[in-house]
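Quick one:
INPUT:
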């Protein structure tokens, strides 16, 4: 009994698009096209981000901005329900208010310095623990109720100190 050797059968490789018989040039072309597509997507998103930041500066008023950052994370508002959407946005300290605009969904928060009661750092807010400290701003609403928002920054100590300084200056001017 003689065992016959069967010829190599065409099999699928681990990749769906690339087979064993493809030309290396085509494989290289597919890889380069993939990188180009990723680059174009990232570039488009970044351009939209810059346009949005320009609109933010116009809304706030460039001449009124004392300090601003493109990297701020909204962590929630005490008066809202527990299932809030947290998200990235722009944060600015102006002459007379804190101004925050979230990307998606588009939310805008403006808190006048005269309404702010307290600014502090914490790791726990709205029954959720964060590994990094965040800035909490407690303020009075138009209905004379106490509310607060949580904001995360790359350097929360610096932003908290800047906000405290501006709030105390505003309160000194009122007295």
């Amino acid at each position: 009994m003689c065992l016959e050797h069967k010829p190599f059968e065409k099999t699928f490789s681990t990749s769906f698009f690339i087979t064993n018989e493809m030309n290396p040039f085509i494989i290289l072309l597919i890889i380069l096209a993939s990188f180009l597509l990723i680059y174009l997507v990232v570039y488009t998103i970044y351009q939209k981000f810059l346009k949005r930041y320009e609109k933010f500066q116009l809304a706030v008023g460039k001449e009124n901005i004392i300090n601003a950052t493109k990297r701020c994370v909204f962590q929630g508002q005490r008066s809202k329900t527990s299932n809030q959407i947290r998200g990235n946005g722009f944060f600015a300290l102006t002459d007379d208010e804190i101004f925050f605009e979230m990307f998606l969904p588009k939310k805008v928060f403006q808190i006048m310095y005269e309404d702010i009661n307290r600014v502090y750092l914490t790791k726990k807010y709205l029954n959720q623990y964060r590994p990094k400290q965040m800035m909490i701003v407690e303020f009075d609403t138009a209905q004379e109720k106490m509310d607060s928002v949580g904001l995360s920054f790359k350097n929360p100590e610096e932003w908290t100190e800047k906000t405290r300084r501006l709030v105390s200056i505003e309160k000194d001017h009122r007295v």
